[in-house]
Amino acid sequence: MITKVMMPKLSEAMETGKVIKWLKKEGDPIKGGDVIAEIETDKANVEIEAFGSGVLRKILVGEGGQVPVGETIGVIADPADDIAAIAAGAPATRPPSAPAAVPAAAPTAAAAPPPLPAMESYRSVPETANVVPMAPVPSAAPAGGGGRIKASPLARKVAAQSGVDLRLLQGTGPGGRIVRRDVETAAASPVPAVAAAAPAAAGPVAPAPARPQFVIPQRTGAEFEDRPLSPMRAIIAKRMPLSKGPVPHFYVTSEVAMDRAWALRAELNALEGQPKVSATDMIVKACALALLKNPGVNAQLVGAQPPGQSIRVFHRAHIGLAIALDEGLITAVLRDCDVKPLAQIAVEARDVAERARGGKLRAQELSGATFSISNLGMYDVEEFSAIINPPEGAILAVGSVLEKPVVEDGQIRAGRRMKMTISCDHRVMDGAMGARFLQDVKRLLEEPLRLLV
Fold it and tell me: Of the candidates 80, 220, 362, 434, which lies 20 to 30 Å from 26 by C-alpha distance?
């Protein structure tokens, strides 16, 4: 039997995929379910499995080749099967488009300092040198017939009022004449030219206090750089406006008393030979049980335009876990969380997180979530709102479990509290539906033994 190995479509926006590595070589025996190749998608590197048994007869797209979704990249068949027709129709591969080279920005020239007033000059001081204020150096008095200062009557009046010494100014008027703006500029300068020293009879003038001088270090290197979008960041940039824009979000927030859940978690983690359980694992289980009780939240809108639109309600809880990677965000799917024990959810959640960071997720772990959870509690985030991951109808944003003073029965004590906010698609559900769902999640976490039965 001949089985074609196809380039899978792993997201709504995926158009092409690249073969990173073949894990089997031509002539190797293949069983259904064997992992045979690694594919780079717009979200992550994904391992693809064989859907048939036989021998890997032909690799049609080599490592590094990029082809559209749905194209045949390999053939699994029995040794006697004729695959000549399939091999002859091998897709034309193209190398992945390399990001356009970004020319290095030329070092930004240091901004030229503003022109200094005529009566001051400064020497350049190295950045590491001790900075010593320099006394202003008077400029030469402007030339004038018989030593007479050439200044307009208005300039003389303003100089007398502001205490500016006209002998220290260089005029900018016709023929070097000092005009009003020259006097006002000198009066507004950091160290204005002051009137000549008082007569000797008035006694010596005390030296002015040293004026601090700040040296701005010269900066070198490019002021900025333009980095091309990674495939993951490009798809995030493409899809987020399709969610936040067209989808009418509304938000409902609730605070959960996590004291009993925290204590139960500590007891479970103290058991030898049992997997470690995280707060996220308990939230996944609580959400899965609450989704079955509130099927209107476990739903999504289907159909492009009315009247073809309808609401699809799911009877199984497939939970998407948002996982932060260096290059972006990926959502890995845990299936049938409503029927799996808490310990199994803990094992699977840790496994998909590790494989997501290593680029080893499988195709079925990248799509099919009916509801998603984004937990930023480990980043000391108390509360936030998440953007719905289309086509899902809702997502839960989870903050840190904080120890804070709480009031119970008129008494103040220390308690553990956690805030969670559900983002809902208002086309699919209303505020009361989201609130009832949060109430059920809250009750399950505050009575955590329910998560074990």
Answer: 362
